[in-house]
């Protein structure tokens, strides 16, 4: 993956956001501002930071203080989010407050709810219909074969091949309880793959039941981790990319089934 748009050496990078940003907790908007900042602490995506004037002190209760940070609990009525607000006391971030995204009940840009983290204004996600021949194998077993994939291109990330469910060996897919969220695509559900040998490859397939509008074309399709399976495109085996989801070895991680 490429450090985009800012390399590590240029961080933190700070930009003003033109959007109205609101943060909801315990039925109250603890932040409502048109003066939020987008801050890249790492290259992959930004966080929202706020000026102290935009986070009312009545919601902040001292939790911990170090030389560079002052942590606060956020308290509204009988609800408390422990150490959910961090006031920075150093360098470029001096005087700015970061609120833990997942500790709040909801975040809004204008009147649209956002999820996981703010969308990166330098990133785009495109879904293109394709007629390329895509096959997926796991440990030599074909689990999907299609000539009508949707290719998802996301800035700085590997191409994902979304395959219509009827073009997969659905009898090998085992529903998983795992879910994840993506600010661009929505809530993902997962399948594990149970091979004819009885071995199970955990959470190697995902799909979006109701994807976000910008990725609506992937509805009804599943994607396999390029990092953990063998994907052939027009007969050519694709290299497994290095990413946070990469397997430590060439083979997929399996869980033997004990009879």
Overview of the molecule:
Helices cover 0% and strands 48% of the residues. It has no helices and 23 strands. Strands 12, 15, 16, 17, 18, 19, 20 and 23 form an 8-stranded antiparallel sheet that branches. The two termini are 41 Å apart. 27% of the residues are buried.
A few lines on this structure:
The protein has 259 residues and is an all-beta fold.
Separation, N- and C-terminal Cα atoms:
41 Å
Level of helix content?
A: under 10%
The Cα radius of gyration reads 22 Å
Query: Which structural category do the helix and sheet elements fall into?
Result: mainly beta
Order of helices and strands: EEEEEEEEEEEEEEEEEEEEEEE
Q: What is the global morphology?
A: elongated
Largest sheet: 8 strands, antiparallel
Share of β-strand residues: over 45%
Helical region count? Answer: 0
Provide the low-confidence segments as ranges.
248-259
What's the total count of β strands? 23
Q: Give average pLDDT, whole number.
A: 92
Strand and helix map with partners:
Blueprint: E1 13-16, E2 21-25, E3 28-33, E4 37-40, E5 47-51, E6 60-65, E7 69-76, E8 79-88, E9 96-99, E10 106-109, E11 112-114, E12 125-129, E13 134-138, E14 141-146, E15 150-154, E16 160-164, E17 173-182, E18 186-194, E19 200-208, E20 221-224, E21 230-233, E22 236-237, E23 254-255
Antiparallel strand pairs: 1-4, 2-3, 2-10, 4-5, 5-9, 6-7, 7-8, 8-9, 10-11, 12-15, 13-14, 13-21, 15-16, 16-20, 17-18, 18-19, 19-20, 19-23, 21-22
């Amino acid at each position: 993956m490429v450090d985009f748009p800012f390399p590590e050496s240029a961080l933190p990078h700070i930009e003003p956001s033109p959007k109205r940003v609101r943060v909801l907790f315990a039925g109250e908007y603890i932040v409502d501002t048109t003066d939020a900042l987008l801050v890249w602490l790492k290259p992959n995506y930004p966080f929202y930071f706020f000026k102290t004037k935009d986070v009312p002190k009545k919601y902040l209760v001292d939790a911990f203080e170090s030389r560079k940070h002052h942590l606060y609990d956020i308290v509204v009525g009988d609800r408390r989010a422990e150490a959910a607000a961090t006031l920075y006391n150093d360098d470029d971030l001096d005087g700015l407050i970061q609120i833990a995204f997942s500790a709040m009940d909801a975040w809004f840009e204008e009147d649209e709810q956002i999820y996981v983290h703010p969308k990166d204004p330098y990133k785009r996600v495109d879904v293109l219909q394709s007629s390329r021949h895509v096959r997926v194998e796991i440990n030599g077993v074909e689990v999907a074969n299609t000539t009508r994939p949707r290719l998802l291109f996301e800035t700085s990330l590997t191409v994902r091949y979304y395959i219509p469910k009827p073009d997969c060996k659905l009898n090998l897919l085992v529903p998983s309880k795992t879910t994840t969220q993506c600010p661009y695509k929505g809530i993902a559900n997962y399948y594990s793959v149970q091979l004819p040998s009885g071995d199970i490859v955990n959470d190697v397939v995902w799909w979006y039941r109701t994807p976000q509008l910008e990725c609506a074309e992937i509805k009804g399709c599943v994607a396999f981790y390029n990092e953990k399976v063998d994907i052939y495109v027009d007969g050519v085996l694709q290299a497994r990319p290095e990413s946070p989801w990469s397997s430590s070895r060439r083979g997929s991680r399996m869980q033997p089934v004990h009879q």
